[in-house]
């Protein structure tokens, strides 16, 4: 078979833009690459692999002859159009939340469960949420060695996780408070200084603040992001009874999610043993020398592909338990890169 044809749906969005950059730097496994977006973006010319490609409007016909279609569009668009693309013969790799918990749709992180990508009754493969993805390469490696049993996670999520409106809002707030060194000392003063919150994707000011909320409200006070961490971790790792509790927090960082992870295992685990496992994981980078100020931060990680792990400690009062701090670029491995890696698995299958 000749090189398969790839379609990128949502090519002009925030993750789509990162996707085009990634496609230019990944192995050359694709033949034709079609760029697809809403009618208002049709006709735009984008650069892919050194060539100019005209964006096409989303329609059933654009999927004719497409082997793999990567979707980065809102849930409702994926829910409508992914089955249409699959019916036209494309294998869909979907980055939305529309199909993640569908029992007939595999939820795939290649480092953890690449084999699941072959079992796709609906012709659709789901990409996990960026928060879950930020820790999966590391936790998958540790699970294979020690048997993961419990996860308690606190996330520190970048504003770009809320879409293009997130960074714009943070920059607007930074501009509004710049130069005023008195802010943050009196209750409510930051809230008064920033633009109208009715125009914000966040429920509280992001500048000079942390916001213990990400996602939408679900039952019993949980947010949708917190439940995704629980449900998606179970599905990806193949541990349906994994105990998971998450608190998702938005922080004034543009890009790169961080997670403080409390992980309990079935087998005894040591810091040295865990570090050795993570050092061998091909997409994990260990930065862990606190005495020298070495640990991952978003400022170090943004724009890169690996999962970074540091602050590896034996939990003082919990047996078989580690504490870790994990960072990953939410627009790259957290979205675009993992989607591309899944698509490459399918390409290898189709041409193998």
Automatic annotation (TrEMBL):
Query: Which GO terms are recorded in the biological process aspect for this UniProt protein?
Result: 'de novo' L-methionine biosynthetic process; diaminopimelate biosynthetic process; isoleucine biosynthetic process; lysine biosynthetic process via diaminopimelate; threonine biosynthetic process
**Which enzyme type, at the first EC level?**
oxidoreductase
Q: Where is the Semialdehyde dehydrogenase NAD-binding domain?
A: 5-120
Superkingdom of origin: Bacteria
> Which amino acid positions bind NADP(+), per UniProt?
12-15, 40-41, 160-161, 330
- What are the positions of the active site? 130, 257
SUPFAM superfamilies according to UniProt = Glyceraldehyde-3-phosphate dehydrogenase-like, C-terminal domain, NAD(P)-binding Rossmann-fold domains
**What's the EC number here?**
1.2.1.11
- Specify the protein name: Aspartate-semialdehyde dehydrogenase
Q: Which organism is it from?
A: Thermostaphylospora chromogena
């Amino acid at each position: 078979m000749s090189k398969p044809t790839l379609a990128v749906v949502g090519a002009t969005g925030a993750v789509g833009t990162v996707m085009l950059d990634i496609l230019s730097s990944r192995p050359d496994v694709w033949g034709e690459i079609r760029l697809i977006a809403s009618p208002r973006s049709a006709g735009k010319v984008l650069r892919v692999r050194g060539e100019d490609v005209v964006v096409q409007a989303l329609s059933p016909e654009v999927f004719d002859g497409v082997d793999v279609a990567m979707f980065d569009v809102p849930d409702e668009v994926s829910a409508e159009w992914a089955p249409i693309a699959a019916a036209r013969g494309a294998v869909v790799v979907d980055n939305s939340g529309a199909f993640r918990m569908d029992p007939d749709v595999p939820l795939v992180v290649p480092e953890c469960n690449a084999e699941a990508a072959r079992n796709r009754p609906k012709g659709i493969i789901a990409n996990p949420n960026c928060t879950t993805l930020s820790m999966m390469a590391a936790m998958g490696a540790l699970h294979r060695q020690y048997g993961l049993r419990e996860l308690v996670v606190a996330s520190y999520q970048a504003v770009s996780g809320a879409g293009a409106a997130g960074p714009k809002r943070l920059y607007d707030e930074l501009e509004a408070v710049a130069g005023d060194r008195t802010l943050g000392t009196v209750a409510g003063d930051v809230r008064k200084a920033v633009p109208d919150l009715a125009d914000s994707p966040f429920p509280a000011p992001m500048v000079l603040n942390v916001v213990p909320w990400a996602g939408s409200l679900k039952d019993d006070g949980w947010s949708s992001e917190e439940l995704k961490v629980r449900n998606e971790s179970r599905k990806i790792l193949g541990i349906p009874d994994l105990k998971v509790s998450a608190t998702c927090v938005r922080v004034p960082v543009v890009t790169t999610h961080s997670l403080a992870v409390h992980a309990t295992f079935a087998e005894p685990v040591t810091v040295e043993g865990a570090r050795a496992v993570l050092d061998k994981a091909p997409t994990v980078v260990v930065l862990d020398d606190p005495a020298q100020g070495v640990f991952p931060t978003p400022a170090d990680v943004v724009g890169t592909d690996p999962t970074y792990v540091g602050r590896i400690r034996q939990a003082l009062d919990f047996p078989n338990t580690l504490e870790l701090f994990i960072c990953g670029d939410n627009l790259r491995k957290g979205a675009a890169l993992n989607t591309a890696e899944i698509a490459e698995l399918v390409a290898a299958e189709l041409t193998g």
